[in-house]
Every structure is written in structure tokens, then in C-alpha cells.
Write a structure and sequence with these properties.
4 copies of one chain form a homotetramer.
Chain A lengths: L6 E6 L4 H10 L5 E7 L8 H4 L16 H7 L2 E4 L5 H11 L3 E4 L9 H8 L6 H6 L1 E2 L2 H4 L9 E3 L3 H15 L9 E6 L14 H4 L4 E3 L6 H13 L6 E6 L6 E8 L7 H11 L6 E3 L17 E8 L4 E8 L3 H16 L15
Parallel strand pairs in A: 1-2, 1-3, 3-4, 4-6, 5-6, 7-9, 11-12
Antiparallel strand pairs in A: 7-10, 8-9, 10-13, 12-13
Chain lengths: ~350, ~350, ~350, ~350
Amino acid sequence: MKNKKTIRAAIVGATGYGGVELIRLLQAHPRVEITSVISSTNPGAEIIQGFPHLTNIMLGTLDAVDPQLIASKADVVFLATPAGVAVELAPQFLQVGLKVIDISGDYRLKSPELYEKWYKRTPADAALLEEAVYGLCEVWGMEVNDTVRLLSNPGCFPTAILLGLIPAVAAGWIDLNTIIIDAKSGVSGAGRGLSLSSHFAEVNENFSAYKLNKHQHIPEIEQALTRVAGKPVVTTLTTHLVPMNRGIMATMYASVAEEARTDADFVNLYNQYYEDRPFVRVRKAGTWPATKHVTGSNYCDIGFAVDERTGRVTIISVIDNVVKGAAGQAIQNLNLMMGWDESTGLMFAPMYP
Amino acid sequence: MKNKKTIRAAIVGATGYGGVELIRLLQAHPRVEITSVISSTNPGAEIIQGFPHLTNIMLGTLDAVDPQLIASKADVVFLATPAGVAVELAPQFLQVGLKVIDISGDYRLKSPELYEKWYKRTPADAALLEEAVYGLCEVWGMEVNDTVRLLSNPGCFPTAILLGLIPAVAAGWIDLNTIIIDAKSGVSGAGRGLSLSSHFAEVNENFSAYKLNKHQHIPEIEQALTRVAGKPVVTTLTTHLVPMNRGIMATMYASVAEEARTDADFVNLYNQYYEDRPFVRVRKAGTWPATKHVTGSNYCDIGFAVDERTGRVTIISVIDNVVKGAAGQAIQNLNLMMGWDESTGLMFAPMYP
Amino acid sequence: MKNKKTIRAAIVGATGYGGVELIRLLQAHPRVEITSVISSTNPGAEIIQGFPHLTNIMLGTLDAVDPQLIASKADVVFLATPAGVAVELAPQFLQVGLKVIDISGDYRLKSPELYEKWYKRTPADAALLEEAVYGLCEVWGMEVNDTVRLLSNPGCFPTAILLGLIPAVAAGWIDLNTIIIDAKSGVSGAGRGLSLSSHFAEVNENFSAYKLNKHQHIPEIEQALTRVAGKPVVTTLTTHLVPMNRGIMATMYASVAEEARTDADFVNLYNQYYEDRPFVRVRKAGTWPATKHVTGSNYCDIGFAVDERTGRVTIISVIDNVVKGAAGQAIQNLNLMMGWDESTGLMFAPMYP
Amino acid sequence: MKNKKTIRAAIVGATGYGGVELIRLLQAHPRVEITSVISSTNPGAEIIQGFPHLTNIMLGTLDAVDPQLIASKADVVFLATPAGVAVELAPQFLQVGLKVIDISGDYRLKSPELYEKWYKRTPADAALLEEAVYGLCEVWGMEVNDTVRLLSNPGCFPTAILLGLIPAVAAGWIDLNTIIIDAKSGVSGAGRGLSLSSHFAEVNENFSAYKLNKHQHIPEIEQALTRVAGKPVVTTLTTHLVPMNRGIMATMYASVAEEARTDADFVNLYNQYYEDRPFVRVRKAGTWPATKHVTGSNYCDIGFAVDERTGRVTIISVIDNVVKGAAGQAIQNLNLMMGWDESTGLMFAPMYP
């Protein structure tokens, strides 16, 4: 059924939510064929054993992590794995000629020291960190092309936050010393691994904050903002857990410069910045997005509130953490790497309600 | 972008969940173009005013209910309206040459008396009731063809229940006097109209039963089972409200006949009955579907448990009430009416989690 | 602050939901003092480490499982432990002179064979099984007095189900061969132990069935119904998981005898049966309880729907599984064992919403 | 059962969540008797008609709003009414000699102009605004005594926010120009009135922001902080809706002064400030409260995170909006007005899970 000009994709980490979302999206992609679904923990098992919702959709069994085998079956491999795994696997996959799209945080930070400090893990090879392209499509998509061997997909929080901040930072419209980010995520962001903090009766009817000033996405956000601003940016980030499955909202605060006085100013600025980018939707002045407006889709919706009383702007940015924050943006990056339209296979509407 | 051989569709009731799901599914359908979105309550308003998640996806404004206008813009009209509206509108739309697919209950019961008794409303014209084709695709899909003018889409509960019972009834494997149906639905089934029974703080962290022995889907279920059995079937139905948005589970009980002694027997029977039907997935013996296995998709998943101790079978059937129980099955019926493959535009995977 | 005539209570299993609910209820009980909170997995740890909501309420650290120590500090010990633990611990506690209230299923079945078959575990000592008193207060409360050494607290599902069925069974108003029970529980019923089936993103926005015809509460229900009926009763039970923390609803079906023709008949029968019992509330004809009506309280609410068309009655019974289904009923039993009013410390209103 | 030294209380607005929580808490209060439950919309109806969970607990019918009648039955009246109602009713109740505890916002702002600006309503009589005592117990409890005729109960957001900020503001530890408040509330905060924004399928699996820079609690917060600081304080507040019933979290940000360098410093400061206040629990350094830690209780839990990198402190404060944010604090104020221990009838543990 697929177009002749397809490529073959392998997915590592198919027992997690990122991996299974890649299956959902790629099996509907017109130019990609999933040829291997890989699990280190349960090779040989039927795919539908862990995910019965894929009955009749994804036949076959889980492959082991075998670079030679995967290279014989696939052109590109997605790594939807926990931190630390891609440090090990990406070099092996690159060596056998596979293109690698890493959804984990292992290749996002250019500085090995920062990785070690924030992730408390051994960093990846410095040359590979240098080579890896950070695929925030709407900002640095021009760097994602057919020469890219190792694509580092942005984190879920950074995607929502950076798309919400970068146009204002680039325009010099907000005071870089005043950026405060209050972020909220659905529970799927914590993955499928068992923990008391994802146990239903603990999370349901509860709202909690975690990793205050310690979240490993902080250096990723600051690295990107610093690059845009041309000078060091430091931010405050609090992450919270919302009793829902999908969705991230970042509520961001900053003092505004003189030239940015109204909501409409911000709307215009962002509309210009994201002109022709299909997945960012800037909301008209006086309205703000809710996470449900993007559920199941690759959209990032952004809204603004400038407060004359305080001279601050509040910027609200929402994504589906599993799509735009993981699998969807990874496919968007694949599209760019292949020279296809970036929206190929991704133009589906949010599911509501 | 759409294929030349497309048809033009209008949707009435686009301020409700059935209507907005038709928009989500039809805008991705390769052979249908949505040419009019209609609301009696708010004509002239932007579509995205009520549904901001459709920003950049569904432009334009809501049309008024004007049969001539609609006939000039569309070939087929979907009625996603509350009970009683299609009684009024369907004749008008048919008269101007439109094909009508009614998602409400107005044309499901052949007997005007039964409609009046259970819906407490004036029934539709008897001739139209006679003409209307009941589109339970996997059972009576052969009757859905290009001669059909008025298609009556099955109810959400009846879809799950009938697909779960009919093969066993047709085979004579269950005692028709013993059928008990315990059904559960997510809250979207109650629609977008405001009521205390859909008020968040009343429904959340709550599980309730409603309309005991009074649900208007009872005569629809019995009419279909009676047709299959060739003799009158009476059932007990309890409907419950689950604190979730989407999903229906029907848990059904009946005493089994001698020849049906094991789960595997039922699995085989159902696999034969639904051979080549893409949207029914019979689970292997010893496993049962959960509603999340079909969320966002057009699948109906079915599982069995035969109990030697009691001589009863428990049949579990799940659907997404907004898709297979409403918009998805309506499109499946449109596909059949047009002579297309019934799965056209509907072969997407469930969203998980 | 406590009355002089208090007793001292120890709680084993204080890292689970049953244990922590005992703490909530007992610390407000006017005649009980909690003198030891015990955990086999984490002795020495601060109680509030695992349960920060008890900050300033429950000081001190977790004791180890040491019968002599506990006997020196307490008069009665509650076992809020997983299946199999009380088989080991109850004899040790009895030997040192403690009264034992077991909230697990270890002493509910009189037949060791049935326990072994349904629990797949080694049963308790036969003499102790014989001695243990099954504390379904509203039915066999007269057997709970100061001579009881070992009290077996009913299971959560059996409590809701038996209170809903026994008056009708005792009166001969339902056909014992036709009893079908469709039960639904909030997720706290699965405990605090980690499992994929209690993982937030798997359970939320989902409704599932489990252990069809295999639930270990089936023999407990049948043992009690058989005792009431004076002849063997066999039932069909399906248990379901509801995406909420607390609450059980049992929806029960049976064919009715001639003399029970209306909802009002059932209401009268049950009001007579439960006269003067403070925790059963029979709803007036035509209304049914929802689980939220009893959240946080020790009530069991019951409603009826007799269907003339089918000759069946539907009985709906709801409890809070953590209170009336566990900790609350255990305290009610303690009250009876001490000769106090059975409602002592338990007459608080449900929390709504 | 009640102590002789009881007072008689009337509750206006008993069809809402604040009113029904007053019933739950007052019926368990040892020194208060509920003698009248009042509704303007449905006088004469049984109380349990709208709230079946009160079956057997709260007998009787709803009274009409009749000051003379209420004065004959009660000593104190609680107003759990929407904005604008207490403007009308409080003077009438005061005139007939009742003490009035207003849970609405009508008497919180000393300035009629501010009320008019933020509430878009006609303000109360200026003399009564002047007389009304703002009952933030842990801060201005010394002003709540037996001379108070009109007690204005703080708003739900202000309670969590002010208890979290005031000790730091009073100590001069935070830069008053940098206070940013990101607040989140469960849906019960929106009341029982029907609206699309409280419709289950719209709120569930959704996280949204509302009233950016426009929330009527902003002037209340600023009035209190200004009073503490002795100079004008302006703040930024964003309120969000969490898909849960109960709970408020305020996440607050400010730049810290030199002397406040560690989490432990803040913990010590707050422990001193709230010494001997039973309902504020300061969490030890490195831990933060979640809303579930206070569900159903009158506690306010507070935690801190000082970030050396940015020189900011993040303060997290949680309450149950229906208890400490409404009915519970109102009773705490009643206790103070009567000269009783402020915790009378309020020392129950949170419900977990």
C-alpha cells in the first residue's frame, strides 16, 4: 500500500509510550514502513502481548537489539529509550550505516559536563555530541537535511517552552533575567516504568510538583535560549504532574521591553516568526490554548497575556507530550531529513474530547 | 488534495461531540470533502469559536439549517442531532435530493409505537421508518448500498452489544431467555449539553447507574436480536456512567447451549462470523478487551469467558462510543453506500495511552 | 484526650491503603489509641515518610513485626496485609494474648480446600478457620462479642454484594439459580503495590474487566449466601476496574418470586431487615445510589429496579471499599467486640464532591 | 448528643459545594447545631433531594431566605453564596441580630472601587466593608473575637497564597517587585452551577488557564500583602484548572534577599511564624506538599526551594479549596469568634488516597 519511495524504519524501546506512539504514527505514514520493533527486555515476544490495542495492526514479534540485523532490515532507527541507552546504542547503529533519531536526552546537550551534572550519567562521545543535530523543527529545521546522521529530538518540556519563548527572545522583547517557567505535564511523560509516583491512586485527584530546580531539561532550555539570545540565559523551571494521560502546558513569565505593549503585538510577532510552519498555531489576542486543544496531534498552540499593571507578559504554550513532545516531532525530523514536506503523515486533527 | 472521485458532505449538529468527531474523521477521509457545517443554534459563528482545537484545520462559519442551500453544496448530509430533530429534518433533506445518514435514534425502530413509548416523542413518518436501512455494518452491511437514501446509524450501546451477541444468537448457542446486559459508558455519550449529571465534580470519582430498564436503546437491541433469532427476544439492560471521556464496555451474560463449552469455541465461532470484517477483533481465549484498546478507533473488540460452574458465558464487547458508536460507523456506512471499501479513511490505530 | 476506657491498637500493614485508612479512622475514634504501627518492609522508618499527609498527626516510627513487643503495647491488632500473611501472623498474635482483626481473606473461608483452590496458597490452620468469626456486622453482628479472639473482616466486594442480596435471599424473593453479579471497583482496591494494571496512564481513561469467574471473593460470597439460603448457591461474578480511587458498585440481577412485584416491595423488605442498623441506607423506590454518595464513609447504600418485562430485579449496592469494605467495617467489628455502640467513631458524613 | 454550650447555625447556599461542606463539617462539630439550611432557589425541597449522600444524616427541608425566621432559629449564619448575594443579605441578617460569616468575596476588599472594578458588581455598604473582619486566621486571628459581627472569610486562592507568602514578606526576605504566582485549582472551585467550562468531557484529560491578570482574587491578595509589607505590592497571578475535584496548589516565585540563602532558612522562618498554629504544616527542606496531602482536611502545607543559580525562591502552598479555602476556615473563624479553640471540630486527618 505504501508508496515506492518509502524508507524502512526500526523502533527501539517499543515497550514504552514513545515507542508505541511511533508505531501508531508511522503505520499511517505514507512513506515509511516499520520493519523492526525492538526490545531489549522481551525479544521474541509478540508485539501485541504488551499492547493489545495493536491487535491486527502490528503483527510479528519483538526483535533483539542486534545492530547488524537491524541494519539489514532498516534505513533509520528511532531510539525511544531511557536516558543512557542511546549513549551506548547510537554509535553502534551509526557504525552499521543506520540513520539514528534519538528521542532521549543523550545527545541534546553539547557539553558533556552539563550532561553529567544534570543526568548523573556518563555522557556520550564528545564528537558525536558535536555532530548531533538538535531537531527543534520550527527554529532550526533548516539544519535538518539529508546529511544528518544523528538527530537529537528535543525534550517534551523544552519543545513547549522553547516554541513559546524563542520568538520573543529573538526579538529582544523580554528581559532575559526575568524568565520564569511553570510547567505541567500529564503522567504519560513519566513513561511506562512502574513507580509510586505513577501509581494510579497516588496521582489521581492529586496535583504535585517535582524536581524543583533540578530537572534535566533546564540545561537543554538554557542552551537553546542562549544560542538564540547570543548571551547566557538562566531560567527558573518548576515541573508539575497533572492527573491526566497526555498534554503539557508551560506557563511562562517575563518582564517585557518597551516595544511590546499588547497581546496583539505578541500575536503578530509570533505569527511572523512561525509563518508557513504548519504545526504552530498562535491564538488570537485574549484567548489561550488548553492542552486538550492539541491532544493526539503534532500542534503547538501559543497564547499571550500582557499585564499593564506589572509590565509582564504571560505566555502559554501547549503540546501533546507524546506527539509533538516525542514521536510526532521525531517523524517531523525524519521528514526533513528525507527532504519530504515536514508535515507528511502528521496532518491529523486533535482528538476532542 | 482530495481524490477527484470525492463526494461533498454536510454535517448538521456540529456543536456536539458526534458532529465534531465527524469533522475530525472526514477531513482525513481521502474521498470526502466537508462542504458545510451546520448549526441551528449558532449559524454565522466561526466553527473554531466553539472548538478551538480545529484552528487552522476547519475554517469558515456555521451554516444555518437550509435544505436548499445544503443541497446546493453537498451530496450527503450527516445528522448528528438530539432525538426528535431528524424526525423533522430528514424528510426535508431527502426531498431536495440529499442522501441522509442519521446518527440519532429517530429512524432505528421500525415501530412508531415503540419509538413513542421509549423516546416519549412523536415518531417519524411510518413510510420513512420502513425505508430507513439500519446500518450495523458487520451484520447487515449487505443492505447498505447505493440505493439507500436514508441510513439509520445504530446507537452506541446497541453497536457494542449487538456485535457481541449476534453471532452467538445466530448460532443458537445461548438461551434467549437469559440475556442480561450490564453496560458502561464514558461521559461523552451524554453529549455536550449541560446537565448536573455531566458536571465534572459530580461525575469525577464517581460511578453511577441510570435509566434502569428504561433506556431507549432497549427496543433497538431487542428488535435486532429478534430479527436474528427469528423469535421475540427480551433483555435486561443496565447502563452506567464511567468517569472517563470515551469508551463503552458491554458485559453480557447468558446461559450457554450444550455445543458451546469453551472460550475457544466462542472465539472460533466469532472469528468465522466476522471473517474479513476489518473492524471486529475477536480476542484469543483467556483475554478480554479494555475500552482503552479501541480509543479513537473504529474497532470493536470482543472476548469471552465460559464458566463451567454456572453454565454461563460472559461476553465482553468494547467500542469507542464516539467513533464506532457514532461518527466512525456512520462513515463506514457512507463507504458502503458509495461502493467503496468499508474501511476507507477509517484504518487508523487506537491512541494509547 | 482519649476517654479512660480506651483500648490500645496496633496496625500491621501500615504501608498500604487499608492500614493508612485505619490510622485516619482510629486516630479520631474516641475509645481507641493507636500504640503501634507496624511494617515488615520498612521498620524504623518514620511513618510520615511514606505518608506525608500524616505530618503532625501520626508521629513516630514503624515497628517491626514482633509479637511480644506488640503484645506489650497493644490489646488488639489489625492485620491489613496481603493474602497469606495473616496465615502466618494471626496464630503468633493470638498466642501472646492479642485480639486479632484480620482484614485479609485468610480466615474468611471455612474450607481450607476452597482457600487453596481460589487463593492458590497454603490455608490457615483448620481449627483457627473454624474459630474465626466472619464479621458482616449487619447480618451476623450478634456473633461478634467479647469472646471473639479472631475476627475475619469481610472482603470489599462481598460486603457490598452480600448486604445487597441477603435480605432478598433470606426472604426467598429471588431465584437462587439466577444470581448474576456485575461488580465495579475503584483502583485503591488493588492496593499500593506497583503493577502495570495500577499504573496511572494504563488505568486512567480506561475501563476493564479482570479475573472473570476466577475472583477469590466468589467462594466467600457463595459461602455466605449458602448459609443464609440453607442450600447451595452458585453465582456468576465479573469484577471491573473503574478509573477512580474509591468506591465499589455491585449491580446484581436475579429473577424474582411472585410475591416481590415492585420496587416498593423490595424497599420495605430491606428497610425491615436493616431496621436500626445505622450504616445501611435503603433508597426510596425509583432512585439508586452512586458510589460518591458514600465516599469516605461507612455507609452501604442500596436501591432496586424490578422490571415487569423480564421478571427480574436489579439490585444496586455501593460502598467505599476502603471504609465499609475494609478499615471502617473492621472498626465496626472492634466496637461490637468491645460491647460499644457499633457506630462509635464511625458516624461521619460522606465527603462530597 | 451535642454539648450544652452549643450555638445554632444557619447555612445559606446549601445547594452549592461550600454549603454542603459546611453541613459535613458542622454536623460533626461538638459545639454547633445546624438549625436551618436555606436555599433561595428551592425552598421547601428535601435537603437530600439535591444531595442524596446526606440521607439519614441531614433530615428536613430547605428554608426560604427569611431573616426573621432565621433569627428565631439561629445565632450565626454562614453565607455560602455567589458574588453579589451577601451584599444584599448580610445587612438584613445583621439587623436581626445574627452574626454573619460570609464565604463569598463581597466583604473582603476594603475599597468599594476595587470591588466594582474586579467583580463588575455593585459593592457593599462602605461602613460594613470597614467593619468586616478579614479572617485569615493564622495571620489576623487575633482580630477575630466575640465582638465581630461580620466575618469575611478569605478566598480559596488567597488563603493558599497568603499563607505561603506572608512570613517571607513580613521578614523582608523577598523582593516585593518580583512576586509571581502560578495557581492551580480543582474543579469544585468553580461551584455547582452548570457551565461548559465545568462540563466533564471538556475538563477531564485537560489542563487550562483562565482569567489571566483578571482574577478577582488579585486585589484581595495585594491588599493583604500591602498591609503586611507596609507598602504597595503588585503581583502577577495566573489561575489554572486541574482535572480533579478538590485541591489548590500555589507555586510562587520571588527573588530572595541576602539573608535567606537556603531552604532550611525558610523552613525555620515559617516554623517560627506558624508556631502553635495547628493547621499550617511546614515541610522539611527538600520536600514539597502535593494537594492530596491535605484533601478533606483544614491543613495548609508549605514547602520551599531556593535556587542558587537564579537567586529565586519557589514556594509551594497547598490546601483543600472546599475546606481550608472555604467551609473549614469559616468554622475556624467561628471557633475564634466564640472564644473556643480554633481547631474545635476540625482536627480530622486528610483522606488518602
